[in-house]
C-alpha cells in the first residue's frame, strides 16, 4: 500500500478536532487512503513501500472541501438568459424551469455529473453530495447509478441524494407530470440504491441519502416513509427548507415548513436541510435543539435578491453548518471554493442588520470542510490529521496573486478568494487533479462528450 510524501509544505491546515490551525514548513505523508503523519523531516523516516515524493515548497495544503448541496443535472441549463430568475419568485422560477428539466435523458444525467464533479475537483472539493430529484419517466430509474459511474471515473467521494417529487400540479405543486413518481416508486428505488451502493465503513467512497425534494412538492406520506426507511437503514435525510415555501405550507397544512417536518420526525442529527434563508430565529432554535443541520448555499442568494441567510444567528444558536454550491441553474458554476468567499462576504454585507456578529473568516473554512463532514455524518473526512482520510488540495502561493496574503492561510480563501484551479487535489490518497490535468483522463474528450449529450435535447 503506497503513499505520497508532500515535502516541505509552506503551510498545512491541520485540525485535531479542536478547530483548524496552521503548521508551517512541515511534510505530510499519506499511506493508502489515510494521512499517516504531519511533521518535520518525514523523508528521514521509514516510508511505505512505493511512496512517491512531491516537492510542496510554497504550497498551502488544505483539507478537501465537502459540498453538501448540489443538483448536477442543472449544469446543462446554466448561463441561460431565457431562464433568468432575478425578476421571479422561487416558485415562479420553478414553474418555468421544471418543464426544461423534464426533457433530460439518461446520457444527460451522466455527462452533467461528470461536468459538475470535474469542476468541483479542480477547485478543491473532495466529497460531493448531490440532490438528484429529477426523474423524467423517459429517462428511467438508473440515473443515480450513472452518477456513481461518473464519480468512479473521476475518483470523487460521492454521497448520492435520491430525491423525488410525488405531488401533482393539480394539487398545488410545481412539478410537471413527466417528473412525478409515486411514494412507493420513490421509496422502492431509495431502498435499491442503499442495498446496491451504500457503504457505511471508514473512508467510504459511496453513500446514499434519502432526500425527497421538498415538502411543498410531495405528499406527507412521502416524508413519513422517508423517515422510516432512513432510520431503518441508518442513512441520512435531506430536503429543501425555507426558500420561500413556508407561507404555502402554512396555508396548506397549518404549519410552516420546520414545524411540519418536526411533526413527522424529519429532523435530528441524521438530517440536514438546504437553504433556510427565510426561517425565523425560533425556527433556527428548533433546528438547533433537534440537532438538524443546514447546508448554506450562498451564491443563489445573489439571484434570489430576497434576504441574506442569517449565518451569524445559526452559529450563535449552535446549528451545524455546511456549505453547498446548489444547482447550476441558480449558481451557474460548481466551484465550492468560491462559495467560501461568497458566504463570508455576503455576511459582511448584511452585518449591520443582524443581531449577532459575523463569524470570523476561519469559521467559513470550517463550514466548507469539517462542518460539511458533520452534515453528512462523516467523522473520517473534513480535517487533516493522522488517521483521517487523505482528502486535500494544495495551492502554490508563490504567485503575484498571493503577495501580502501569506501570513494568514486560515483566512485566505474566505477573505481573499482563490481565482484559479488548485495545483493538486487528492481524494482517498489518490491524486485526481494535478498540473492542470486529470491523470489518465482526456479532459477535452470529456467536455466534447458532454456537449454532444447536451445537443441531443431541445433545451
UniProtKB/TrEMBL annotation:
A GO term for molecular function: hydrolase activity, acting on carbon-nitrogen (but not peptide) bonds
The keyword Membrane appears for this protein: no
Keyword field: Hydrolase
Residues covered by the Amidohydrolase-related domain: 60-432
Entry keyword Hydrolase: yes
Source organism superkingdom: Bacteria
Listed CDD domains: ATZ_TRZ_like
InterPro entries (UniProt xref): Amidohydro-rel, Metal-dep_hydrolase_composite, Metal_Hydrolase, MTA/SAH_deaminase
Family, similarity comment: Belongs to the metallo-dependent hydrolases superfamily. ATZ/TRZ family.
Protein's name according to its UniProt entry: Amidohydrolase
Amino acid at each position: 500500500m503506497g503513499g505520497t510524501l508532500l515535502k516541505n509544505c509552506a503551510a498545512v491546515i491541520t485540525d485535531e478536532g479542536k478547530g483548524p490551525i496552521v503548521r508551517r514548513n512541515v511534510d505530510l505523508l499519506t499511506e493508502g487512503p489515510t494521512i499517516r503523519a504531519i511533521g518535520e523531516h518525514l523523508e528521514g523516516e521509514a516510508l511505505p513501500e512505493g511512496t512517491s515524493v512531491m516537492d510542496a515548497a510554497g504550497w498551502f495544503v488544505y483539507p478537501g472541501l465537502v459540498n453538501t448541496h448540489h443538483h448536477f443535472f442543472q449544469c446543462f441549463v446554466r448561463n441561460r438568459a431565457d431562464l433568468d430568475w432575478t425578476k421571479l419568485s422561487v416558485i415562479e422560477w420553478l414553474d418555468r424551469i421544471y418543464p426544461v428539466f423534464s426533457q433530460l435523458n439518461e446520457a444527460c444525467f451522466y455527462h452533467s455529473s461528470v461536468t459538475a464533479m470535474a469542476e468541483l475537483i479542480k477547485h478543491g472539493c473532495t466529497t460531493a453530495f448531490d440532490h438528484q430529484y429529477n426523474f423524467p419517466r423517459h429517462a428511467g430509474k438508473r440515473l443515480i447509478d450513472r452518477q456513481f459511474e461518473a464519480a468512479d471515473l473521476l475518483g470523487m467521494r460521492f454521497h448520492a441524494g435520491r430525491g423525488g417529487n410525488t405531488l401533482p400540479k393539480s394539487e398545488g405543486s410545481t412539478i410537471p407530470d413527466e417528473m412525478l413518481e409515486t411514494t412507493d416508486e420513490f421509496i422502492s428505488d431509495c431502498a435499491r440504491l442503499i442495498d446496491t451502493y451504500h457503504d457505511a465503513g471508514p473512508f467510504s467512497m459511496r453513500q446514499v441519502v434519502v432526500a425527497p425534494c421538498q415538502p411543498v412538492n410531495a405528499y406527507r406520506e412521502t416524508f413519513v416513509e422517508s423517515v422510516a426507511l432512513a432510520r431503518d437503514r441508518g442513512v441520512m435525510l435531506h430536503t429543501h427548507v425555507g426558500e420561500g415555501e413556508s407561507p404555502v405550507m402554512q396555508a396548506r397544512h397549518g404549519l410552516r415548513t420546520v414545524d411540519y417536518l418536526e411533526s413527522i420526525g424529519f429532523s435530528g442529527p441524521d438530517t440536514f436541510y438546504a437553504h433556510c434563508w427565510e426561517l425565523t430565529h425560533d425556527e433556527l432554535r428548533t433546528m438547533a435543539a433537534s440537532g438538524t443541520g443546514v447546508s448554506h448555499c450562498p451564491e443563489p442568494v445573489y439571484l434570489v435578491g430576497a434576504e441574506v441567510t442569517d449565518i451569524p444567528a445559526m452559529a450563535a444558536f449552535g446549528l451545524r453548518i455546511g456549505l453547498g454550491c446548489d444547482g447550476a441553474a441558480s449558481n451557474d458554476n460548481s466551484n465550492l471554493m468560491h462559495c467560501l468567499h461568497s458566504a463570508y462576504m455576503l455576511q459582511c454585507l448584511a452585518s449591520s442588520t443582524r443581531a449577532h456578529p459575523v463569524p470570523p473568516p476561519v469559521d467559513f473554512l470550517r463550514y466548507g470542510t469539517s462542518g460539511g463532514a458533520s452534515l453528512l455524518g462523516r467523522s473520517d473526512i473534513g480535517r487533516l490529521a493522522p488517521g483521517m482520510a487523505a482528502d486535500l488540495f494544495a495551492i502554490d502561493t508563490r504567485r503575484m496573486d498571493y503577495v501580502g496574503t501569506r501570513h494568514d492561510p486560515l483566512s485566505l480563501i474566505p477573505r481573499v478568494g482563490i481565482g484559479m484551479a488548485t495545483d493538486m487535489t487528492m481524494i482517498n490518497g489518490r491524486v485526481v487533479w494535478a498540473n492542470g490535468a486529470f491523470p489518465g483522463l482526456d479532459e477535452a474528450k470529456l467536455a466534447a462528450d458532454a456537449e454532444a449529450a447536451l445537443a441531443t435535447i431541445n433545451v
